[in-house]
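Q: Got a minute? One more chain.
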Amino acid sequence: MHCCHHLQEDKNQRKANQFEKYERRKIAIMSEHKRKKVLVIGAITPQFIADSIAKHSTQTSIGAHDIFLGQVRADAINGKTVQAIDYSAYEEMAEDKFHEIREAAFAKFDLTCMHTYHSIGKVKAGEICLFVFVSSHHRKMAFDACRWIVEEIKANVPIFGKEIFEDETYSWKENKN
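A: Always. Here it is, folded:
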């Protein structure tokens, strides 16, 4: 018969075993697809986007691409106009979360390819700050995956935007649908 002390030790050991199992599973999942750097300094240029698309012309098993481009808006907030957003992040955590979303997308959707890039630093109104590019054999899968990925990024990745106004004052951006 166990005394209370031994019951607590057993409970702690079970928790430790569960955590260890979780960590091993996480490592296996995280290493399934090649880890790609997502965060880029400054705006994502039209040339970078065009080059990304052009690189896929030789992959003839792809039947559909879908792209989402997030652009900084010149919103009017309390009588001031947003001139830029200065993005910051807990970079290691953000990269880990992007990778988790990538792995989950490949598990959930029949994708042949996926690329995601998000800006860090100052991005002016009218410039691109988020680029999601997915490829699949069929359009419905590409559409569904792209939408799902964007929503996951907005909900779960620790990236913060400081909206900078024309008078150099700022406010922290709140993500909206």
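A: The mean pLDDT is 87.
Q: Perfect, thanks.
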